[in-house]
Design brief:
This protein is α+β, with helices and mostly antiparallel strands and 275 residues long. It folds into two domains: 159 residues, Jelly Rolls (Sandwich); 104 residues, Arc Repressor Mutant, subunit A. Helices cover 54% and strands 18% of the residues. The strands form two sheets. The chain has a five-stranded antiparallel β-sheet with strand order 1-7-2-5-8. A hairpin with a 2-residue loop joins strand 3 and strand 4. The longest helix has 32 residues. The two termini are 24 Å apart.
Length: 275
């Protein structure tokens, strides 16, 4: 694949590993809808299984291992070249939410009956637009279709997020705290905020987290903030001041001190390492 120009989009029907392009995990973002059978894999050191009627999404360069398929496996797979997708993300904050959600829940059970139809139509529309090379405004319309594709997939992720939210609302205080973190940790970094949301004291929230996970609420907040910091700093289209504003810091100097505390380097030093 490295010797030829990579296609921005590949649509294929897969019945086993041999149907996937070589090294697709590193080159492409993977969207997979399972029609029958099962697919099993290790994702970020955790085992997962996808069955008929479920959707899987892996970012390019995800830590995927031990990928295997049942004998009756069949899936529609859309592969999107990583830079092409990344360059056409329509909204930064929603992109971060979708990224973090997918990193925790790579397998989505489709709760809305329309979602299967939406996924398959979305796959086909993007692939069809790719093939319309004679279009006078080919590059522009393909990029627009890519953005529409992303928005449609975010809609499906949002359905899954809301379903999990309703489940969490009836769950334990610890589970509700983790969900609140997913929703608010971009801007809220104080234990007291989350304790107020749960109508308990900050001390009790720290105790609950320690009992359930071995770490305090403060440590959980810092972990979530760190994930968001890294994603924002990796987006070189944003300058440091814009990132500080996105995370609701009162000043760039305060933001720099916080990044130094969490990442061990300043924002500028972190970005220099990416070069």
């Amino acid at each position: 694949m490295s010797k030829e120009k990579k296609s921005n989009v590949i649509l294929l029907e897969a019945t086993g590993k041999a149907d996937f392009p070589e090294d697709f995990i590193h080159e492409y973002h993977t969207h997979l809808f399972c029609h029958r059978g099962t697919a099993a894999f290790i994702f970020n050191n955790e085992p997962y299984k996808c069955k008929a009627g479920e959707f899987v999404f892996w970012f390019a360069d995800s830590r995927i291992a031990d990928l295997s398929f049942s004998k009756n496996f069949k899936a529609s797979v859309l592969l999107v070249e990583k830079e092409f997708l990344n360059d056409n993300i329509p909204d930064l904050s929603r992109s971060i939410d979708a990224t973090l959600h997918s990193n925790r829940y790579p397998v989505l059970h489709l709760h809305d009956k329309e979602d299967k139809h939406r996924i398959m139509l979305n796959f086909q529309l993007l692939y069809d637009k790719l093939k319309q090379t004679e279009h006078r405004f080919y590059d522009e319309v393909l990029k627009l279709q890519m953005r529409l594709f992303i928005l449609e997939m975010w809609h499906i992720f949002s359905n899954d997020f809301e379903h999990r939210k309703r489940t969490m609302q009836t769950g334990t205080l610890y589970a509700r705290f983790i969900h609140l973190l997913q929703e608010h940790s971009m801007r809220e970094r104080e234990v007291q905020f989350y304790a107020n949301q749960l109508n308990i004291t900050a001390k009790y929230l720290n105790s609950i987290c320690k009992q359930n996970s071995g770490v305090t609420a403060s440590e959980w907040i810092q972990r979530f903030a760190k994930e968001r910091l890294e994603l924002l700093l990796q987006n070189t289209q944003l300058n440091i001041t814009e990132i500080a504003n996105e995370m609701d810091f009162s000043s760039r100097s305060f933001f720099t001190r916080y990044v130094k505390k969490v990442l061990g380097v300043t924002p500028k030093e972190y970005r220099n390492r990416l070069k």
